[in-house]
Amino acid sequence: MAKFVTIVLFLIVIGVTAYIYLNFESVNFISDEPVPLSPNPSNRVVAGSRYSNNIDIDNKFWVTEDSTRSVSEMQWTQGTEGYKDTAIQTLLDLNKVYEETIPVGETASLTVDYGHTLEEYPPVPTQAWVRQNILNVMKFLNLSLPEKTNWWRADYITLLKSYYSPTADVIYTGIPKSGCTNWKFTLLKMEDMYPDDKPSPKVHYIINKLNLANSVYKYNRKALNTKYSFTVLRNPWTRMASGYNDKFSSSRSEKWQKGKVALQILKKYRDSNISLGEVLGGGERPTFLEFLNHIAYDDLADINAHFRPQYTMLDLTIISYDFVGTLEHAKEQAKEIFTHLKGISGNHISVPGPYDSSSDPRTERSTLFAKEQFKIVPKKLLDVIYKKYKPDFMLYNYSNFTDPLFPFPLYYS
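-> structure tokens emitted (413 positions)
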């Protein structure tokens, strides 16, 4: 009898364990109470996890022409017959890697011309318009905006990219390849922590002294949540092109080649047997098409922050930013941000603008490079990339690379 009872109890334990595993395995548990951060905090929300489990996977992204002229309108309205029935990886289904080979000869033939002229300079979007876009993105992701900001509960990747300047009394979330070098330089100059007159790669190391991932709990929670906060976005197409050109195809790429990123891409999309020695000694670099396959089909966790979707580095479920700018209007919007920076008088700090010397974003090097490169990329690959980065496009209604206003947001006052 005792043996029978033991067997029954054992089967009950097995059954309960199986039920818990099947029903709760994929649930992200977020503690109501903040916990101390560590260099690799296993109990914190990982990069993008607030978003990756909340995607509306039934959204097909197949659209028709409407009154707007954003990339979502024309994604892709030309030559897409037959694509609707193709098995394309759903947005951010990051547990599987889409292995289908993209035919190199199948190129995008997008020739839409909306009649814009180079002389037109689009108006600067209002923050009310941007806030509505953010709300639309959150609805699209099946998420809600926060009732109030709580930096103590922000996910780790957001804290890792956020910096508090005591002198300026602001919090800045710096997204890589979206003008973050200039803003980091500005904050460091205000703190008198950077001696040089021009920004250099050193700013990315020195700025860590202001990093919230290392210091968020030393500040009063209520006081921190009232600080003026801002971030700056960028048209995803130019950000991708600029990231590739800067990290893989320029003289500044050497250190990146020595890292895992180039080797990771080459191993998967060119030669699985390639070694680090061959990459370093032979100077092998990913092609632009190999790079695009990487950001299109690989998991978010495997994509470096310089190329990862921007929205995944902004915990919009917890943080309500006071100002969300865009690099395309950097000079105009920086003046507005500067009005909220304390201690600015007497510092002789210039307003951050774009990296390029061109005064019009449409003629900058990164824009011209993007237009030249993306026009020969297979349509199907472009579509997969767009779906994965759609929230980024929605945040500022960014133009497509075929629009004469590219890379400006499509905003109409």
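The longest strand covers residues 228-233.
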